[in-house]
Amino acid sequence: MYLKIHVHPQFNAPQNPLGFSETIQEYCKRVRELANELLKGIMESLGLEESYIQKAMDLETDSHQLLVVNLYPPCPQPEVVMGLPPHSDHGLLTILMQNDHVGLHVRHDGKWIPVNPPPGSFVVNIGDHMEILK
């Protein structure tokens, strides 16, 4: 199952099931706040003003935030699952909340290594747009 919702600058979530839209809106607001704090820290680490990227890219009004949810049902033969092809994330940041089923893998020394974050944590990926900053 795959669900993709545009949540900023305009919020466009379905109203069903009851309470879904409100829950997703609050979650996305909090993730956006987290992203803004992370961006401030990244800018500072690059020796830039902490609000540099927010101003340069007009993140409050001229940026997009998507909520993407993937549900992969259990597979009786996980060794044959292909998943998504190798790719990079095209935005500034990807903030990934992963459940107890390993999904994210990174390529290191020619091998795919599963990412096993601690329960309840977020994995933050730097996207392509961030790489062109400096």
Report on the structure:
With 134 residues, the chain is α+β, with helices and mostly antiparallel strands. It has one domain: B-lactam Antibiotic, Isopenicillin N Synthase, Chain (Jelly Rolls, Sandwich), CATH 2.60.120.330. 26% of the residues lie in helices and 23% in strands. It contains 3 helices and 6 strands, in the order E-H-H-E-E-E-E-E-H. The protein has helices spanning 20-45, 52-56, 128-131; strands at 2-8, 65-70, 93-97, 105-108, 111-114, 122-126. The chain has a two-stranded antiparallel ribbon with strand order 1-2. The chain has a two-stranded antiparallel ribbon with strand order 3-6. A hairpin with a 2-residue loop joins strand 4 and strand 5. The longest helix is centred in the N-terminal third of the chain and has 26 residues, at 20-45. It is globular, with a radius of gyration of 17 Å. The termini are far apart.
